[in-house]
Amino acid sequence: MAVNDAAEPADETLMLAYAAGDARAFERLYGRHRAPLYRFLMRHLRNAALADECFQDVWQRVIAARAGWKPEAAFTTWLYRIAHNRLNDHWRALKHRPPAPEDADERAARVPDPDTPERQLSEFEQRRRLQQALEELPDEQREVVLLRLEQELTLEQIGDITGVGRETVKSRLRYAMDKLRARLGK
Predict the structure, then answer these.
(1) Contact 120, 134 (CB under 8 A)
(2) Which of these, 17, 49, 132, 185, is most buried using a 10 Å CB contact count?
(3) Do 81 and 184 form a contact (C-beta atoms < 8 A)?
(4) How much is the pTM?
(5) Contact 3, 28 (CB under 8 A)
(6) What is the per-residue pLDDT across 33-92, written as a single tens digit (0 to 9) for each?
(7) Angle at alpha carbon of residue 97, lines to 151 and 136, rounded to 5°
(8) Are 148 and 161 in contact (CB under 8 A)?
(9) How far is residue 91's CA from residue 45's CA, in Å, rounded to a whole number?
(10) Cα gap 3→63, rounded to integer Å
(11) 3-state SS string for the chain
């Protein structure tokens, strides 16, 4: 089952083709999901070395599971479920979330920006406030917000990834958004 380069096959079709031995199908899957998955891991880990390690581990698990993969859920749901489980393993091993680096604000301030200093300061302050507000959320609420807003997953997909029901996901998302609005004054 080879993949036609002109068409845009679904992720599930690509995964089945990869399981049947089509390495190009994996390259396309990886190309589609590489950046969003890495951003998801970085948002949780806030450490490039740890994110790189988890990222590689997630893809190794995808590769290892290819022969037995069945399209019972969307590929994206399955992929982020693997990432979710890998993050849980990491946090269980550490028994805590690492704090942000002490010089995080200084590092962010050193990032060059072609805009005016006033705009740079305003955008930096908004990003900093949003990041702080996200960090203040309970882990379960933060994860739901990131999966919904950054990965644009449905409530059902998020439920499959996190192992909770749709209504629980909806409730966590609502509480998280309420907290973010209150924290950001919107």
Answers:
(1) no
(2) 17
(3) no
(4) 0.58
(5) yes
(6) 999 999 999 999 989 999 999 999 999 999 999 988 888 889 999 999 999 999 998 888
(7) 65
(8) no
(9) 9
(10) 18
(11) CCCCCCCCCCHHHHHHHHHCCCHHHHHHHHHHHHHHHHHHHHHHHCCHHHHHHHHHHHHHHHHHHHHHCCCCCCHHHHHHHHHHHHHHHHHHHHCCCCCCCCCHHHHHHCCCCCCCHHHHHHHHHHHHHHHHHHHHCCHHHHHHHHHHHCCCCCHHHHHHHHCCCHHHHHHHHHHHHHHHHHHHCC
Cα–Cα distance between 180 and 182 in angstroms, integer? 5
User: What integer pLDDT is reported at residue 184 of this predicted model?
Assistant: 84
For residue 89, what are its two tokens?
């393993």
CB contact at 8 A, 40 and 150: yes
From CA 140, how far away is CA 162, in angstroms rounded? 9
Smallest CA-to-CA distance from 152 within 5, 40, 24, 10 is with: 40
Q: What is the C-alpha to C-alpha distance for residues 157 and 148, in angstroms, rounded to an integer?
A: 9
- Whole-angstrom Cα distance, residue 66 to residue 54? 18
Location of structure tokens 């996901």: 169
Structure tokens at 49: 């070395």
